[in-house]
Amino acid sequence: MNVIVVVANSLHLGFLGAYGNPWIETPNLDRLAAEGVVFDHHYPENLTTLPTRRSWWTGRYGFHDPALGWTPLEPDEVILPDLLYKEGVQTALISDVPLLREAGLGYGRGFDEVLWVRGEGYDPWIPPTDPRVKRVRLEDEPGLRLPPEDDPDHALWKGRWEQLLRNRAVAGRDEESTGAARTVQAAIDWLERHRTRSNPFLLWVDLFSPHGPWDSPQPYRDMYVTIEPDEFEIGEEGDIVRDEDEEIEIDEVAGLVDVPAGAVGDVLSEAELFRLRRTYAGAVTLVDSRLGQLFEALERLGRLDDTMIIFTSDQGEPLGEHGIVRRFRPWLYEELIHTPLIVRMPSGAHGGTRKTAIVQTVDLLPTIWSALGLPPLDPERHEIHGHDLLPLIRGKMTKVRDYACLGMDTAEFAIRNHLWHLIVPVEVDPEEPRSPELFRKPEDRWDHNNVVEQHPEVAEHLELTLRRWLELLVKGGAFEPPLLREIARLGSN
After folding, report:
1. Residues 123, 409: Cα–Cα separation, whole Å
2. pLDDT at 237
3. Domain map of the chain by residue range?
């Protein structure tokens, strides 16, 4: 079969119908989930954008090593397209993610074809000297509110938002001009050009949306402005509810299309946070709308019968659940670390099922490899930590691991199983000290009730398991079976 991977950057799990959201319109992803296999427990191993792609393309854990974080790919670092090149598989990367395109990072290397769709976010696409943008002024966009001039980040955000407005002025402001629309159309064009190709292919479609800035055109920007505020707060059981004591007239709050990463109360008010969530919801629906165009093209070209479609995201999006927006702190709460994974097999085989197995980003490489029908990777030559998920999809296995281990910026680590989620700070900030936190699952879906003092023995056991697992990881190489079994035993209780 062929493989198409579709990534939506920074997609909050709570904003998808397939994962329980009742009010945001995502009919195309809902259909993909109905025809595919939905993984309910999918986690990155290393946050955020660049580290996650390294996980996908190497199949290896790297969260313990700062050299494997937000860093360039090493010249000798073997990644998925390098491996497929030797097997005669055609590969293509089509993306509007400006962070991947930055000079010197190397995240476009190895693919047979690479197409960068320019102009999303703060992509340095249109220079200030371009005559088409000489009338663009930051003060004309009320959805962008600069920090005070004495703020150390004032110049940073001023430059970013001026770039955003220049890009928008040239690209246009309708739906067809968005990065999501242009990237999906580029993917459809690629499929059209290769419709008669006999060799298997991997097409990687990497969308920047719904990552901020949330500068969606109408009607998406204000699509959910009439939704009641009680649909936006997270309750004890994971539902989005509102504190009945609060009275906020959201429809009177000006919509923001971007905010600096920061704390609620500093970068935006509580009312503006509610309004921002509606803007974000519109961005999610816009992504779904464009993916509908891709799925229609696949059906028209007959590719739904010979192609596996993988839909996922690199990270979630903090939207005030723990008092911050965007990745302001390396806090490994559920809204950041729990990400979607939907796999549609050719012809919808095994569709309409859900898997409770704990899976991670490192599993994509061996799964794609297996789906393409290639010989098993030699563990002596290719040190892959991930697991092939096809046996799970086909019902031949029920799990591949007992827990997920992950981290961000080597500042915090976490371990997650079906019953517990433990967060362990590694680098302590004296201005904002952090202690280990423990959350009970699945009751506490969004990590609101820290029970570490009530269950110290559980926290101690999980931290020991995490440290033993890290010792194994630091040794390097593939996991040796005897030690792996011991680590698995530690994590199974």
Report:
1. 23
2. 43
3. 2-401
